[in-house]
Amino acid sequence: MSLYEPLAQAFAAGHAREVPDLLSDAHFARDGRATPAAVLIAITDVPHDPQVILTQRPRAMRDHPGQVAFPGGKIDPGEDAITAALREAEEELALPREAVRVIGTSDIYHTGTGFLVTPVVGLVPHGLPLIPSPTEVEAWFEAPLATLLDPASWTTNEVFWRGANRRYLELEWQGFRIWGVTAAIIANLSRRITLEALRDAA
Known about the structure:
alpha+beta; Nucleoside Triphosphate Pyrophosphohydrolase; five-stranded mixed β-sheet
């Protein structure tokens, strides 16, 4: 049995309704920059225990060193969000784009650094032989979808940033710290796809 139909149904139902107060860092963005970007939320096709593929950026990177992220990056000219997310996942993890069954695009997240990030949700086979690109990915790992979608898994913290207090979500998973933009995108997705909706659809 595949997770595709239940996930697609829950995704469609969740995006057909209005969801107020989705997280955004737009009020922290300066200079009016709004650079389109896309990330791939790759969910493994394991109906009873689906996992989400995440990466850790190299600690020597200039931007966001060592942070946990989804595969993704800027949308190149001529690309849409889905094409960009699939290309980036292939470049970063050698994840074949033809292996991804795209479910759809979720809510755009405006980062405090001026990126408009479109999350692309897709289903991938379990056990893909992923190979991280050493210049873009220090490590990759999987975290259970059920854990990520459960609000009780997350703690809320606060930091003073760009002249104001910024609240952010955080989750420690097997030595990896998931927070910031990645955590906010997951939190917004959890407002669209609940564990209950997935179970009902199945």
